[in-house]
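fwd from M.: "can u put these together and see what the complex looks like"

so here's what she sent:
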Amino acid sequence: MNNRRKFLKQTLATIGTTLIGSQLLKAESILPEKSKITLQQNDVILFQGDSITDHGRNRDVLIPNDINGMGRGYAMVAASAILNQYAGKNIAIYNRGISGHKVPQLEERWQKDCIDLKPNILSILIGVNDYWHTRDGKYKGTAVSFKESYQRLLDNTLKNLPNVQLIIGEPFAVKKVKHVDDTWYPEFLGYQKVARDIAKEYKALLIPYQEVFDKAEKRAAGNYWTTDGVHTTLAGVNLMAEAWLTTLK
Amino acid sequence: MNNRRKFLKQTLATIGTTLIGSQLLKAESILPEKSKITLQQNDVILFQGDSITDHGRNRDVLIPNDINGMGRGYAMVAASAILNQYAGKNIAIYNRGISGHKVPQLEERWQKDCIDLKPNILSILIGVNDYWHTRDGKYKGTAVSFKESYQRLLDNTLKNLPNVQLIIGEPFAVKKVKHVDDTWYPEFLGYQKVARDIAKEYKALLIPYQEVFDKAEKRAAGNYWTTDGVHTTLAGVNLMAEAWLTTLK
């Protein structure tokens, strides 16, 4: 760490609580500065995932940067901040999250909903349904098959988009809020580990959402951040967007 | 300015461009620090206005802090940031903007949509329709009647909520984007002056949105920030939320 950064870190540690929405401070604790992304002119950012990413978007909207096509979730709040902050860089942002999806569904629609959009920056948050849907026995997946399908998805991605910057969100759950109880554990931990391992294997930036929500629970109860243990409230949406934005320099 | 603040200001001037979404830096240029609001436990914030505030909210949702009841506009993005930043303070935030409304419509629904909600902090952004609807001759208002009705609204407010902190947004228009052309001027300037004068008269915090959008046009063209000269894009939503958040300490 050079002197300027050391100075900033010390200063920000002092003034941290007076800053609203400062990403830099929290960034220090989540991601090493050197690995962060510097947005470039004409970058294309794609948010992929399940309902947490989808969050009520109008799926008929296919153009980038459209407010109705972005939903009401973390992707919308993060996109809104990026388009303001990086105005003039002609950034295109898409949301293609679809409620209920697991990795196999992403695989089926990957050509149309990822490759064809030619993202430079691809953010994926997937996995909670890959576990959740096994609970009633109707879906026969395991943490092992989750990993295999996730690797296949990323191999396909890198084959078609060799220079894409990957961002992987750790699937998370907030215990004791509605759907999420002790019976989720330890199984669900295996799925979280897969996402973390895959992020390392594919040199993706990992957003450790479980840690983000665990820390947030020190500030307010779990049901302040999620409606059902999995889906975000208005506060949770900002919490996730803030964490996502720490991937940027 | 005490030494600590002087130090911060200098430091932030140095590091400004590395901070994403830092409100403090921009705050310096918009509002004097001493007049800003310190949020208190159990504060109730109400966003009132027209379509710019409404922005597609589900009007059947009457409870505070609900993501569907907040719309997709600046009120949603600002509320989301507040609920994250001030988690634990039990803040309640309502959006009661309604598309197409002018001050007379606010007056009609003020008991139900403002007084009964008992806000501590009341944010009003109104006026663009008070001008706009006169353009086809169907609405007979003037800048003078706008001022009179706005004063009546605030007198009624302060009679019922003597301790409310008022925030008044200056109505704005982005010239040469769709609906807004030279024929809006100078008439529209009169409506903007009313809002600024009223903010002073009622000791409200003024958010100078016209200045905010004028400055933003140096970073990207007008149609990057508004779809039609009046309504916000995804970038514009964040721009406005950012400006709104400068009212907070």
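replying to her w this: The domain at 2-18+42-245 of chain B is CATH 3.40.50.1110 (Rossmann fold).
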